[in-house]
């Protein structure tokens, strides 16, 4: 016996289905509760005191005085009123990010904006500094004076120029253009930024990568900028039109570094897929795939003489490559830990490699070992050297060591201070490079800033320990 099945129209069935769905989700238990103004003010006051108490006393510039946000009473109580201050300045909390001078925590600056013109001028990086500028710097206690006062002898000679802010993530790579007018940085915020070298002003931001930008390079032979990142992409940017004109496809994992050959139109990239690839810049052809490393290839460098390509890897080896044959010419196995950086001396036929165990110097063309530079007991991420024989090593713990290339003497140590509001762990040095004049050192750091160090022309022999060697005493300090 079959039961009669009640028939319904399609419209009725659809309506019933919608009603069941509505009844199921009508109570949105995941919806956040309404914001309570009093609780929000209290939370903001506590956060200001906990995170920004060190900078709440800083004055803002007069021209932005009219735009200062009228803080709630709970926050005003946390401000630090100082007797004897200029009444034209208003003591207030500064903008959490970017932490540039003159940026107040206002409704307008809660979102990221480029620094104001006044803020840029206050961050100006003059080279060489005028006598008036030096006198002005001496009127207030500098980072140098503070460190010397508290006994930080290893930091006392560091002349730190104003910090350049603008990235929203770790700054992982840096390159200076040949004309020494501007430099480029790549960051974990997936952007590439171009900065004016003399003023520190942001000139241009390039977007296109979808993950951390790990390497940038500016061509000496054409108006091209090359970049690579953890999104496996290698891009060629035309700086006349500010857009990508070529992609180089082939790597199977994150691309950690790149370098341009100085005399021919060849680009070399290295990757987490344990290979380095040689590209024809114009045709985008993959001329060689350099295989042999057994772990991530972290750094690559090119030179005109043989061997033309040098790679360092997390498998603790360095390989020297024959560019024509695309094969290994020599394998250096002296390091016991990952090799993250390799740098070539600009005038000598030598190079250095940095690892967590120590820094080693080598002689081309066969990679004959010269000497160890021991003492930088940290994971060394980057190396830079200039024509005067100043070797700089930057480490994961925020320390910078300066060495004499010939003797291997560590003549200065710097510990870069993190930005106010940053964690102490955010003090790593990811990249460093000398500008074309070789008188300024630019570092890319984990506190999302770029710092510029200049030679301290005021350093004298009396400021050095008495047991320093005569050839070191002649060296200008940073």
Automatic annotation (TrEMBL):
PROSITE patterns: WD_REPEATS_1, WD_REPEATS_2, WD_REPEATS_REGION. The keyword Repeat applies. SUPFAM superfamilies: WD40 repeat-like. It holds the Pfam family WD40. Gene3D superfamilies: YVTN repeat-like/Quinoprotein amine dehydrogenase. GO terms for cellular component: catalytic step 2 spliceosome; precatalytic spliceosome; Prp19 complex. Keywords: Repeat, WD repeat. The keyword Iron does not apply. WD repeats lie at residues 164-205, 206-247, 248-289, 290-331, 373-413. CDD domains: WD40 (cd00200). GO terms for biological process: mRNA splicing, via spliceosome. PANTHER family: PLEIOTROPIC REGULATOR 1 (PTHR19923:SF0), WD40 REPEAT PROTEINPRL1/PRL2-RELATED (PTHR19923). Belongs to the WD repeat PRL1/PRL2 family. Involved in pre-mRNA splicing as component of the spliceosome. Component of the PRP19-CDC5L complex that forms an integral part of the spliceosome and is required for activating pre-mRNA splicing. As a component of the minor spliceosome, involved in the splicing of U12-type introns in pre-mRNAs. Identified in the spliceosome C complex. Component of the PRP19-CDC5L splicing complex composed of a core complex comprising a homotetramer of PRPF19, CDC5L, PLRG1 and BCAS2, and at least three less stably associated proteins CTNNBL1, CWC15 and HSPA8. Interacts (via its WD40 repeat domain) directly with CDC5L (via its C-terminal); the interaction is required for mRNA splicing but not for spliceosome assembly. Component of the minor spliceosome, which splices U12-type introns. Within this complex, interacts with CRIPT. Also interacts directly in the complex with BCAS2 and PRPF19. This is Pleiotropic regulator 1. It comes from Takifugu flavidus (sansaifugu).
